Amino acid sequence: MSVHTPHTPPPFRDPQLPFAKRIDDLLSRLTLDEKIGFLHQFAPAVERLGIAAFRTGQEALHGVAWMGPATVFPQAVGLGATWNTDLVRRVGEAVSKETRAMRARDDRVGLNVWSPTVNLLRHPLWGRNEEGYSEDPKLTSAIATAYTRGLRGDHPTYWRTAPVLKHWLAHNNETGRDVMSSSVRPRVLHEYDLRAFRETVEAGATAGVMPAYNLVNGRPNHVSPYLREHLRTWTDEDLLVCSDAGAPSNLVDSEHYFDTHEEATAAALLAGVDSFTDHGTDSSKITARVRGALEQGLLTESDIDTAVRRQLSVRFRLGEFDPECDPHALTRDFDTPAHRALAQEAAEQAVVLLKNSAGLLPLAPGTRLAVVGLLADECKRDWYSGTLIHRSTPLEGLNERFGAERVEFAEGVDRILLKTSAGTFLHVPEADAADEVRGAEGALDPALLAGRTDLPPLTTDATGTEFALVDWGEGMLTLRAPDGRYLSVAEDGRVRASADQPGGWVVQETFRLEPHENGHLLRHIGTGHHISVAADGLKVADGNGEIFEVVVVESGEDAVSRVASQADVVVVVAGNDPHINGRETEDRTTLALPAQQERLLRAARTANPNTVLALVSAYPYAVDHTSLPAMLWTSHGGQAAGTALARVLAGDVSPAGRLPQTWYADDADLPDLLDYDVIGGRQTYLYFEGTPLFPFGHGLSYASFSYEGLTTRVEDGTLHLSFTVGNTGDVTADEVAQLYTRAMEPSVPRPRRELAAHHRVTLAPGEVTEIAFRVPMSAFAFWDVAQGRQRVAPGRYEILVGASSEDIRLTRAVHLDGEPSVPRTVMVDGLDAADFDDQSDTEIVDRTKTSGDSVAPVAGRRGELLFRDCDFGKGAAGITVEAAGEGMAELSLGDGPVLAVLTLSPGTAGPHDYATVSAPVVVAAGVHDVRLGLRGPVRLARIAFSD
Question: What DSSP element (H or E) covers 182?
């Protein structure tokens, strides 16, 4: 320990010293109990050293979330649709500045931000599709890197915020998310899932990662060896690994991977988890588990020091210990005009024009509009939104742009009365003015309204209240009172009109109408109970509840038909509510647009062929657009969503968003949600061989563009290429030039085409610009399972330049020298079971609880593994397998007969207790393809051959 006098600050307070020395000094001053306390998300203050409390975790996916009013930018998938790294970097800067400004007012706001989400949008039914950027690892890492750079700031020493990437690793389903294992073969792991994380971490603006709830290859992500084997090798910085909420307890409670919490906590800490997010603000359980693990010899104080060091590294970089030197300490930029303008710019750039076959768009001046649909007058928040200070809906944007006198509106919902068996109707009592809690600009504050019990519950009377019955699909309904409030159920079980929007971890504003006798029961989805009518008001009940008659006052389709028939153009605004039918904890079940919205769209098209469909959604839909002249998509665009969409429709802005993921035409095109093998399952634009509804990278413009003059050369291990793009239209517009590559004669399955670079550029009419890309040879590599590393195969590669993955304008072939393949030297090295070239009906499982992979057949099926080009030298006379469980392995060469059967006897102690079994075999000299058939509950780790 360094010596200092009472008048001399200790070395950890000296800003002239390197952070590493300061952390060493501070660690030496902390007691073991103090260091253990740091391991929980809510680390307590150490008053004797003047160290403040610290909390890991502040949600900031597209603005500061959960901390009240903040600037709200488009959802992450919308930011991905901009294909604009400079824009996204500026959004990150704005979010980090608002984080600092809010922190100055409220110390509950954290500077360790849990953003961005870099999970790849492999499957469009994933409930959290809105949180990712793209299905492509290159685009995802480019956008994520831009966002983290903005969050970090550009000071060489001190970070404005410390971003943590979510969710490590291969996490793309909510169904059984804490117990399901993603089977990820080595090629998919290295070429796909790890890649988005790696390129973002290597860019140097990431403070750490958060492991996902799921398991990968049979092992929970919170004890993943990949944290040590891959993540921490990508940078010299100390990366902070923060657990997801409740995940440490899941290791025992739901996953049953460990027998005790002490064992699980020790395993997670040793694997690399540095901060445990569990049991809310109560740190006692985690700290008790750590102490128990120490007492049992599962951990040492040095292990704890390693984790605390990583936490302190982040805290020092955030300037916590150098307030006088921190350049961000006085940042007060919050809801500035610049931030409002940026929110609008981002929303405009995120709009994708999917179709414009009749030139209906942009809308001509003076057009009489009918604006219809469930999202037409909505500005939706999602689970990771801040409270809106400003908001604009499509209706408001079009009213402002075209004049309210030229715009007619029909929401398209059924207006109903609910009649009780006693002949009375449900009634919403009027709330006193004093009961209303209003936020910024007079908007009802959902955080203060939802769940309130001081408002009167619904009653019944002779006339009743007319409700808007909003059908979100799959039987999920919301009921809205005339004043705009949604019916909600609070903890006391009463039904009130008390929510500005559906929301919350458990949504309390959704219901189902269930046919019963001559009417309907009304089931509250949040509690699972039916609604009953009592003398003191409506409430949820354990029994069957009240039988209601639904009296339709006005059909939504009739309202749409009426206004559509009187307009020049109809704009149907359809999509989803981010809290209903697809969100965290809930995957979607179909790509189809909800039936009610399909009916509204059909009614509009029947009444008026000049119908534009504007989809505002967190994910793709499969929509029959054959009779639609125009179609657009945007994510929920934050506070400026409506203004942005109106400006694009009016032609004030030429659309230039591009799809960040494939839009499939039908559910039949989709793989199983839990099939993570993008190569074998032919998933995403990289491998999909069908015809998509709209391809990856697709997006139209109000201008047209020429591509000319592609030149290429390979020099010093880099492909240099250039071409020109010209605006041949008559409006200023952005174009997104996209560069793809493909191996022309691959020896293993390779992508049909793969994004290597892109550039968004603004061009005036007649303007031409040169675009140049430099592509490293590593962009052409694949993971060679035989050699266990990335390799560029020699041969011809096609360079494709164009406006989307399918709209290719320029091509050229180049020859790359690369490294030739070599046969597997199986007589010397054997075979790791997971390093197969191909497989059927198998899954990868954990070899041990700490490292390694094995392969098992899918339950009830015969699995098969194929290993190509195995060099047996002078031949083999024996085979040995290392396996656990029971069952058998059958060896054959190529398509030949079974040459050997190895039977694993039952009775091994457990799934991680391996035995070796040998058998004679005759394998001729030379190179052969090896097939291994697997039967029964066997876990195969390795195969070896002997002469």
Answer: strand 181-182
| Portion of the chain with pLDDT greater than 90, in percent | 95
Both 101 and 249 in a single domain? yes
What average pLDDT does the segment 270-283 reach? 98
Structure tokens at 819: 């490294």
- Whether cis (ω within 30° of 0) applies to the bond prior to 746 is no
pLDDT for the residue 4? 54
In a domain, 680, yes or no: no
Q: With H, G, I as helix, E, B as strand and everything else as coil, classify residue 271.
A: helix
pLDDT category at 443 given cuts 50, 70, 90 is: very low
Which of the listed residues 765, 790, 816 is the one where a domain comes to its end? 816
Calculate ∠ Cα 856-858-864, nearest 5°. Answer: 65
Same domain, 539 and 564: no
Q: How far apart are CA 865 and CA 839, in angstroms?
A: 5
**Does 873 share its domain with 761?**
no
Cβ pair 815, 795 in contact under 8 A: yes
Question: How many Cα neighbours within 13 Å face the side chain of 208?
Answer: 28
Provide Rg for the chain, Cα atoms: 30
Alpha helix (H) residue ranges in 119-246: 137-152, 186-188, 194-202, 226-229
* SS3 sequence of 918-941: EEEEEECCCEEEEEEEEECCEEEE
Helical ranges in 106-176 per DSSP H? 137-152
- What is the residue-wise DSSP string for 302-335? HHHHHHHHHHHHHHHHTTTT-TTT-TTTT----S
Find the mean pLDDT for residues 452-456. 88
* Two structure tokens written together for 851: 């490292």
Q: How far apart are CA 148 and CA 158, in angstroms?
A: 14
Taking 60 as the threshold, does the pLDDT of residue 759 lie above it? yes
What is the average pLDDT value for the chain, to the nearest integer? 95
Enclosing H/E stretch for 531? strand 530-534
State both tokens at 286: 């985690």
Q: Angle between the 301-317 and 261-271 helix axes, to the nearest 10 degrees?
A: 50
Residue type, 857: P
- Band the pLDDT of 910: cuts 50, 70, 90: confident
Give residue 432's pLDDT. 65
Which of 795, 816, 837 finishes a domain?
816
Domain match, 100 and 135 both: yes
- pLDDT, tens digit, 9 for 90 and up, residues 632-652: 999 999 999 999 999 999 999
Q: How far is CA 318 from CA 483, 784, 926, in A?
A: 46, 40, 60
CB distance 892 to 931 below 8 Å? yes
CA distance 472 to 510: 9
Domain that holds residue 800: 703-816
Same domain, 205 and 275: yes
Average pLDDT over residues 83-90: 98
Residues 940 and 811 both lie in one domain: no
Mean pLDDT along residues 225-254: 98
- From CA 346, how far away is CA 396, in angstroms rounded? 18
Task: Clarify whether 274 is annotated catalytic.
Answer: no
Rounded to two decimals, what is the model's pTM? 0.96
719 pairs with which residues across the strands?
714, 775
With 80 as the cut, is the pLDDT of residue 909 above it? no
* Rounded distance between C-alpha atoms, residue 935 and residue 887, angstroms: 5
Q: Which of 25, 193, 238, 244 is catalytic?
A: 244
Q: Which residues contact 626 (CB under 8 A, 6 or more apart)?
A: none
Q: Domains in the chain: how many in total?
A: 5
pLDDT digits (tens, 9 = 90+) for 541-584: 888 899 999 999 999 999 999 999 999 999 999 999 999 999 99
Cβ-based neighbours of 232, under 8 Å, separated by 6 or more: 239, 272
pLDDT of residue 544: 82
In degrees and rounded to multiples of 5, residue 77 shows phi and psi of: -65, -30
Sheet holding 927-935, edge to edge: 838-840, 863-871, 927-935, 887-893, 898-904
For 2-12, write each residue's pLDDT tens digit.
445 556 899 99
